[in-house]
UniProtKB/TrEMBL annotation, chain A:
Lineage: Bacteria, Bacillati, Actinomycetota, Actinomycetes, Kitasatosporales
Gene3D superfamilies: ACP-like (1.10.1200.10)
A Pfam cross-reference name: PP-binding
Secretion signal span: none
InterPro entries linked to this entry: ACP-like_sf, PP-bd_ACP
All copies of domain Carrier, residue ranges: 5-82
Protein species of origin: Streptomyces aureus
Protein name listed in UniProt: Acyl carrier protein
Top-level taxon of origin: Bacteria
UniProtKB/TrEMBL annotation, chain B:
NCBIfam families for this protein: PRK07314.1 (NF005589)
Domain Ketosynthase family 3 (KS3): 7-412
Classification lineage: Bacteria, Bacillati, Actinomycetota, Actinomycetes, Kitasatosporales
Endpoints of the signal sequence: none
Annotated source species: Streptomyces sp. NBC_00119
Family: Belongs to the thiolase-like superfamily. Beta-ketoacyl-ACP synthases family.
GO terms for biological process, alphabetical: fatty acid biosynthetic process
Gene Ontology MF: a single term: 3-oxoacyl-[acyl-carrier-protein] synthase activity
SUPFAM superfamilies membership: Thiolase-like
Protein name listed in UniProt: Beta-ketoacyl-[acyl-carrier-protein] synthase family protein
Database matches in InterPro entries: Beta-ketoacyl_synthase, Ketoacyl_synth_AS, Ketoacyl_synth_C, Ketoacyl_synth_N, PKS_Beta-ketoAc_synthase_dom, Thiolase-like
Top-level taxon in the UniProt lineage: Bacteria
Keywords annotated in UniProt: Acyltransferase, Transferase
Length: 85, 413
């Protein structure tokens, strides 16, 4: 797979997780809105980090995911971590 | 008779009920009048020393609140939010159009999100600190339910959780009445909520000897005032009342179920968990609540008693009721049907008392095959069928661990 398609697949994996665990509509997540705009606050981002570690083995440092991020920006951070893993 | 010195009354204009007796006022009232217990074997308590409970049947938080909201809330908050929505709609009010700065919310709770806390502590002890959810604290804290209802209903006046154990719901209603009569608020959502049917909590209650061990016959386990009662059945639920000053309710032509005419709270200062043997603190609370309402003891026609079905509570409460009211009032414990909803109980039972005044029907006490002969005073316990009777004055009594006593006096609107 190309780097682009890996990131595309990761994006759908992450949006699927957020949708499944937090009850958000995937279309909303993929719309380019920021987490803030989607009512995903800092506590929920801590919860997301926990889920990413448990379900995908990706370990993020506290505060790495920011509520000002869009899904694409979050996925870029997650992808970089996945590369290191 | 209605209108007797009711100057300090506030009107009950809306009721929300999410209890073991059902979801909504109509389901609750039908079930409570039927006198059929809601207690069942609880699959989530399988293997525990007590495996029966009274849960809210068919409560689907995701359907009621949406998954986006439901997962972030412990069940004690979910029940209260749904109950509050019912109550506001029932009152013909709308949080989209009211002045939220003039609205308050006060809700009784005791054990908060104890099921969430138990689960997260297990996660912590079996895993690492990083496994603990960031939502553990906001889901677990008792005060959060008032905050969440305020958010949901756009309430910007005072928000408060009262914690007087099983008297918490009654304490909340008494507090709400003061907020209205002092002019602090124009509308108050007042009630109680509890959802603490977790293995840890039930084992704690069971080790105290508080729970019925009649696990082979759950439907007969909650039997207030019966000679063979042996403890309560743990229940969950929420009740929220919309309260307004009577003149405000009248001015907007609101339906008034009944008025909260008097309230008093007292403390036993006697023992951590045992009530005073003569029910002295409860008797004083009831007497002073009647004074507060401007009602004479012999005017009281109905009492929705605390009646937990523990040997000690029902005996001492009967003595307290008799010492103030004699044997004239028809006494019911609706816990025979609902089990003991702990901090919600005072509010659930205040709602049932308001409905008894509104509908002219007194619910029976479930499972009372024969009254306890060791209750050494005469009280008129409603057994068997509901009694159809128009009444003007009723009371609801509550007691809590810690020696908290509370009495509410309600009058026909």
């Amino acid at each position: 797979m190309t780097a682009l398609s890996v990131e595309f697949s990761l994006k759908h994996q992450v949006s699927g997780l957020i949708s499944d665990k937090f009850g958000l509509d995937e279309a909303e997540l993929l719309s380019g809105a920021t987490f803030d705009e989607l009512d995903i606050d800092s506590l929920i981002l801590v919860e997301l980090s926990l889920i990413l570690r448990k379900e995908m083995g990706i370990v993020l440092v506290e505060g790495e995911l920011k509520s000002s991020f869009t899904l694409d920006e979050a996925v870029a951070v997650i992808a970089a971590k996945a590369d290191q893993a | 008779m209605s209108g007797v010195a009711r100057g300090r009354g506030v009107a009950v204009t809306g009721i929300g009920l999410v209890t073991p007796a059902g979801i909504g006022v109509d389901e609750n009232w039908r079930r409570v009048l039927s006198g059929v217990s809601a207690a069942t074997t609880d699959p989530e308590l399988k293997g525990e020393r007590v495996d029966i409970s009274c849960r809210v049947p068919g409560f689907d938080a995701t359907a009621e609140l949406g998954r986006r909201n439901a997962w972030k809330l412990d069940r004690f908050a979910q029940l209260a939010i749904v109950s509050a929505r019912q109550a506001v709609t029932d009152a013909g009010l709308d949080c989209g159009s009211w002045d939220g700065t003039r609205v308050g919310v006060v809700i009784g709770n005791s054990l908060g999100g104890v099921a969430t806390l138990e689960k997260q502590l297990r996660t912590y002890f079996e895993g690492t600190p990083d496994d603990v959810s960031a939502l553990m604290i906001p889901m677990g804290m008792v005060n959060m339910v008032a905050g969440y209802v305020a958010m949901d209903q756009k309430i910007h006046g005072p928000s408060l959780v009262t914690a007087t154990a099983c008297a918490s719901g009654a304490s909340a209603i008494g507090t709400a009445r003061e907020w209205l009569l002092s002019g602090l608020c124009d509308v108050v959502l007042a009630g109680g909520t509890e959802s603490a049917i977790s293995p840890g909590t039930l084992n704690g209650l069971s080790r105290m000897g508080a729970l019925s061990s009649r696990t082979d016959d759950p439907a007969a386990a909650s039997r207030p005032f019966a000679h063979d009662r042996d403890g309560f059945v743990a229940g969950e639920g929420a009740a929220i009342l919309v309260l307004e000053r009577c003149e405000d309710a009248t001015a907007r032509n609101a339906r008034r179920y009944a008025d909260i005419a008097g309230f008093c709270a007292t403390s036993d200062a006697h023992h951590a968990t045992a009530p005073h043997p003569q029910g002295a603190g409860l008797a004083r609370a009831l007497r002073d609540a009647l004074n507060d309402a401007g009602v004479l003891p012999d005017e009281v026609e109905h009492v929705n008693a605390h009646g937990t079905s523990t040997p000690m509570n029902d005996l001492t409460e009967a003595r307290a009721l008799h010492s103030v009211l004699g044997d004239r009032a028809a006494v019911t414990s609706t816990k025979g049907v609902t089990g003991h909803t702990l901090a919600a109980a005072g509010a659930v039972e205040a709602a049932y008392t308001a409905l008894a005044l509104h509908h002219g029907a007194l619910p029976p006490t479930a499972n009372v095959d024969s009254l306890d002969p060791s209750i050494d005073v005469d009280i008129d316990v409603v057994t068997g069928q509901a009694r159809q009777k128009r009444i003007q004055v009723a009371a609801s009594t509550s007691l809590g661990f810690g020696g908290h006593n509370a009495a509410l006096v309600l009058t026909a609107a």
